[in-house]
Amino acid sequence: MHTQIEIGRDSAGQAVPIDIEELLATRLLVQGNSGSGKSHLLRRLLEQCAGMVQQVVIDPEGDFVSLADHFGHIVIEGGSYSPREIEALAGRIRQHRASVVLSLDDLEVEQQIRCAAQFLTALFDAPREHWFPALVVVDEAQMFAPSVAGEIAEDTRRMTLSAMTNLMCRGRKRGLAGIVATQRLAKLAKNVAAEASNFLMGRTFLDIDMQRAADLLGMDRRQAERIRDLERGHFLGLGPAISRRPVAVRIGSVQSGGKSDTTGLMPLPDAPSEGMEALLHAELAQQAAEPVPARQVSPPPPRPAADLEQAISSFTAPVTVPETSAEERAKVVEKPASETPAIPLDDQHDSSPAAGANHDLDSILREMAAEDGATFQPAASLFRTFAIRCRQRGVASSHVDMVIFRRLFAIACAGLERLDDSQREAVERLAQGVEDDVLAPYLAIAVAAAQGLSAPDEGELARVYGSTSPGRIRRLLDHLERTGLIVVREDFGGDRTITVPGLEQFADVR
Fold this sequence. Notes:
Helices cover 43% and strands 13% of the residues. It contains 21 helices and 13 strands. It folds into two domains: 271 residues, 3-Layer(aba) Sandwich (Rossmann fold), CATH 3.40.50; 174 residues, no CATH class. The radius of gyration is 31 Å and the shape is elongated. α4 packs across α5, α5 runs parallel beside α7 and α20 crosses α21. It is α/β, with parallel strands linked by helices. It holds the Pfam family DUF87.
């Protein structure tokens, strides 16, 4: 099989090849200041070997998504997936040998780093039977393998350094060939840069970067001055996959383009300064007073290759119920009937006196739940108020003790009356084994799920729960998930999805 591609031409017009088979074993480091042509070089390399080897691109700026239009790469929008989904996708990518672009431009910097680190780690940890050869291209590698601690959290830095070190140091035996590109060699961790045996050095101006580049190329200080004078798109290449001696190469043309490609100068608008000033200040105060729009949800990945898309991008996170101890299962699921009374159904078609009494009880409970601050009052105080109002209206309430009242009040706070019969029956069935102290927020989530509405935010859950602490609500959601009552999925973009097992036939709460 022919394993060489042409990366460009030397000063004499001769083709400069790269041996892809050798590159898989020896890795590549690309360096150059902004505007030197690094992205163009990576694009040329990827395009030339697109049909030869699997490619995985870590793209923090979204510059390589156009490969999907020309070569069938699958674009994975990092912000659209949870950490567990990113890891599962990485495993499927190795299994099916799909060429993909992990686009991270919709995430904040630290989230980009964490997403890329988990993705790379999952590629590295794939089972042995999936160790197929693949080029793993990491653009802006100084972000993912910083030489010194920056503004990111220390645990994030350790995670990403471990992932990048595994890729460059131990990835070869697993079929992973790292290609890292950086603007500043001085900012790239030395143990990551040192593992590359092939180099393509572009224009750089800082002495510290030129010196490191010259050391890697085996050049003296006088020869290193050539690096400063390189033109855009010109690189010095060296390595077993390129040339045994430093060779100057002008990178060839490409088919696809990045979103940051410049199109030259454009004429400025022909408008007088007074008109431009008025345009800038028109309705400025009104616009500043408007609420900040919600973050747009990233679109789903495109579908250029149907067979691989179905195997990879159509992934749905499995709904798993965490294991619980026997004591917890006995407490939550097998609670005796005396402790977990049945929630009365509101039979709209029953005209008996008992049904009318139930309607009156529901009316009183709904009135109490709608009052400001009602959920923040002690249960004993609420129960006394309930009993007084029942006596005032002549409604029999002797069959409602404190335990039953707490559950009925939780139902009133959650608004089960808004559901139709089938929805309400499903929610009440699921709620039979829920502990009294978390029943109200659970029902609020379940009601929204049954109606297909947005999930109650933390403020609304706090009101229903009778708390003003956001931390307590987060612990509540964690408790509900641990006991298998809900499944919380939060993606790298910060969007949270709550699924209520047993209500999938209605909708997901988003």
